[in-house]
Specification:
The chain is mainly α. Helices cover 78% and strands 0% of the residues. The chain has a single domain (13-187, 210-386), classed as Growth Hormone, Chain: A (Up-down Bundle). It has helices spanning 13-39, 45-73, 75-95, 99-111, 115-126, 132-157, 164-183, 192-196, 211-242, 246-275, 277-297, 301-329, 335-363, 368-386.
Length: 403
């Protein structure tokens, strides 16, 4: 395809993309080192899991509310609010000298953590349906960049002290919030709700959530429980089996991020054209099954690298695919709410997954969280086939309004 035949990126897309990328750089600084950082305050596996879960509990409560708010007042102000909350949370975490302050910082961050879902809704606003998988894939690549730049920056910042990476993340979030105030365009079209809302919407029922969206939320919940078992315990796993410190764990996540960038920023869009979003989603979850079970058995570097590569490719396929599908099945005037609902469902997974994985790590062995996570992803693959998500058609039509 020639350059002239290629569909151009919508105006303002790269501004939103760069905002998400910078936000995820801060996320990438924090996640790989939080578990080891918490050990300084006497935290063990279960406590580390609860620390991750506290973020997700706050996100579960607030993400749908912020998504719905973005449908009413616009995407831009909600993105700015979220970024400011992330800045405050990072400063609180960096200044913590007792464990409860770590929990407070994670709760603030989770409560304001709707920037990604709202940014996804903004891309859904501006994208033509045929371009949505490609644009969501590119947005997913921002997550990969976050895990390339973030852990590397966190590893370097940790040389100045254990608290420094969190202060760096806070400064980045504050700069990002100021830049978003100036540069991020408003994508929500005025009067959209009034134009598209059905006459019976005054009843207050949540018509944004169709049966297909509920099914995607269930699968998203299951796979999130599995993936957060990896996220929450990998620093402990790497330390136990391979002797990683804060820096070593951070650099492993750099490698994961590089794979995500290559997959989502380049190959994903082309593969969608060839195989379709539904096929890539099912294939991505199947790769998670393989990557997690291999990781559970990894005791030498080559096996660990194979497991991480397969896991990263699987996540690189699955993440933008489910976002694209949510965007397709969501009513346009409730897209923010639908994205928030999906984020809330995955937040429940992040509430359940880390403490359970931490408990298994402490009591069943370092391998057990990954074996259990692999089994959960296998269940998710079965559900996708049972509900027909391997086919390029909506598995369940939106319910017709009563009356």
């Amino acid at each position: 395809m020639s350059k002239r035949e290629r569909t151009p990126f919508p105006k303002g897309y790269w501004t939103i993309w760069s905002t998400v990328a910078l936000d995820l750089v801060g996320f990438g600084i924090v996640v790989p080192i939080l578990g080891i950082y918490a050990k300084r305050f006497g935290a063990h596996g279960v406590t580390v899991g609860l620390l991750f879960a506290s973020f997700s509990l706050a996100q579960f409560v607030c993400a749908p509310l912020l998504g719905k708010l973005s449908d009413r007042i616009g995407r831009k102000p909600v993105i700015v609010i979220s970024l400011l909350g992330t800045a405050i949370a990072s400063f609180v975490t960096g200044a913590a000298n007792v464990l409860w302050l770590l929990f407070l910082g994670r709760i603030i961050d989770g409560g304001s953590g709707a920037s990604l879902a709202v940014a996804q809704a903004a891309v859904g606003d501006m994208a033509e349906p045929k371009d949505r998988p490609r644009l969501m894939g590119m947005l997913g690549a921002a997550f990969g960049i976050g895990f390339v730049v973030g852990p590397a920056l966190g590893g370097l910042a940790s040389l100045g002290g254990a608290h420094v990476p969190f202060y760096v993340a806070g400064v980045l979030a504050l700069i990002n919030a100021i830049a978003a105030m100036i540069r991020v365009p408003e994508t929500r079209k005025p009067g959209l709700a009034a134009t598209h809302a059905p006459a019976h919407a005054a009843s207050g029922k949540l018509h944004a959530v169709t049966p297909a969206l509920r099914q995607l939320a269930i699968v998203g919940f299951v796979t999130t429980v599995a993936f957060t078992a990896f996220e929450a315990t990998f620093a402990l796993f790497g330390h136990a089996r391979f002797g990683f410190g804060i820096g070593g764990s951070a650099w492993i996540f750099v490698g994961v991020g590089l794979v995500l960038v290559v997959v989502q920023g380049g190959g994903y869009g082309q593969l969608v054209k060839k195989f379709g979003v539904h096929t890539l989603y099912v294939g991505g979850v199947a790769l998670l099954v393989v990557g997690l079970v291999v990781m559970s058995a990894a005791t030498v570097w080559p096996v660990l690298f194979v497991a991480l590569f397969v896991l990263s490719v699987g996540q690189g396929f699955a993440s933008p695919s489910i976002t694209t599908l949510v965007g397709e099945y969501a009513p346009p005037h409730r897209r923010g709410e639908a994205m928030g609902f999906q984020q809330s469902a995955t937040a429940i997974g992040r509430i359940v997954g880390p403490p359970v994985a931490g408990w298994m790590f402490d009591h069943s062995g370092v391998w057990s969280p990954y074996a259990a996570a692999s089994a959960l992803c296998a269940v998710a693959v079965v559900l996708l086939f049972v509900w027909g998500f391997q086919r390029p058609t909506a598995p369940t039509a939106p319910a017709a309004p009563a009356g």
